[in-house]
Write a structure and sequence with these properties.
With about 270 residues, the chain is mostly beta strands. It contains 3 helices and 17 strands. Strands 9, 12, 13, 14, 15, 16 and 17 form a 7-stranded antiparallel sheet that branches. Strands 3, 4, 5, 6, 7 and 8 form a 6-stranded antiparallel sheet that branches.
């Protein structure tokens, strides 16, 4: 990736920088420059990083967007050598950084306005996604619900325990995590398995060997309503009636009008 020349930043590391350059200027897509070196912990492989961002028009220096004022960092990036998630170029750039580093990337929008800008990102925090639910086992789970047992790696299996389902959503912690509370507008990283009431498994991220990432705005209502309010690290038993699932539609291995039972490990939310 080519380096951007002629751009500087001042200010305390980890705070909103003041970015300076001579206008107008042009930038290449995927070009970059490290404006401020970080003074915090080293970024490591597998870290989920949160960045505060400023978009600055390179023609006149005007600020197009900033997350700093409302403190809404973007935490969608995982620094990983897995090229299915991050290009090798970006991995090599981010893995060399420390917390509070500020970097700028050149962007040329393909919209009708053809806006060219600098996307200035400051790495403000980092974390590692969990690999399974981690927290306190809940002891007072209602006795009539399906019984869940866990393998050593955390993969759940289930005994329906004669359970006949529910007309309303059941959202029961089996393990209470100590992380942040999930909001219904967030994106969630989770491991999960889903079953029909007869015990037939229809889906499992565990069997695919990889957790799943999804926006709660893009899933069935039973997931959106059932996971919101629980904490990261929790394992949640969901019983989703047809009205909050797929209703009268059949979907893959799920017959129409099915009650769905899920065990969901909440690994991260952002």
């Amino acid at each position: 990736m080519n380096q951007i020349a002629g751009v500087t930043a001042t200010g305390e590391p980890g705070e909103k920088p003041t970015v300076s350059f001579k206008t107008p200027m042009t930038v290449e897509d995927n070009s970059y420059v490290v404006l401020q070196k970080g003074n915090g912990d080293q970024i490591e492989d597998g870290d989920r990083i949160c960045t505060q961002g400023i978009a600055i028009n390179v023609k006149d220096g005007s600020e197009l967007m900033s997350t700093w004022e409302k403190n809404t960092p973007d935490c969608s990036t995982v620094v990983t050598s897995d090229t299915s998630q991050m290009t090798e170029d970006y991995y090599n750039i981010f893995k060399d950084q420390k917390l509070n580093a500020t970097l700028a990337f050149g962007v040329n929008d393909s919209n009708s306005a053809g806006t060219s800008y600098l996307m200035v990102l400051t790495i403000v925090s980092k974390s590692k996604d969990l690999t399974k639910a981690t927290g306190t086992k809940v002891l007072d789970v209602p006795a009539d619900l399906p019984k869940v047992t866990l393998a050593k790696d955390g993969k759940p299996s289930i005994d329906m325990n004669g359970y006949k389902g529910s007309d309303t959503l059941i959202s029961q912690d089996l393990i209470k995590g100590e992380g942040a509370e999930v909001k219904d507008t967030q994106t969630v990283v989770a491991h999960y398995t889903g079953w029909l009431l007869d015990g037939t498994q229809f889906d499992s991220s565990w069997d695919r060997g990889k957790s799943s990432t999804f926006s709660l705005d893009g899933v069935i209502k039973g997931w959106k309503q059932g996971l919101a309010g629980h904490t990261v690290g929790s394992q949640v038993l969901l019983v989703v009636p047809p009205s909050l699932g797929y209703g009268s539609d059949a979907k893959d291995k799920i017959p129409a009008n099915s009650t769905l039972v899920f065990v969901v490990d909440i690994l991260a939310a952002y």
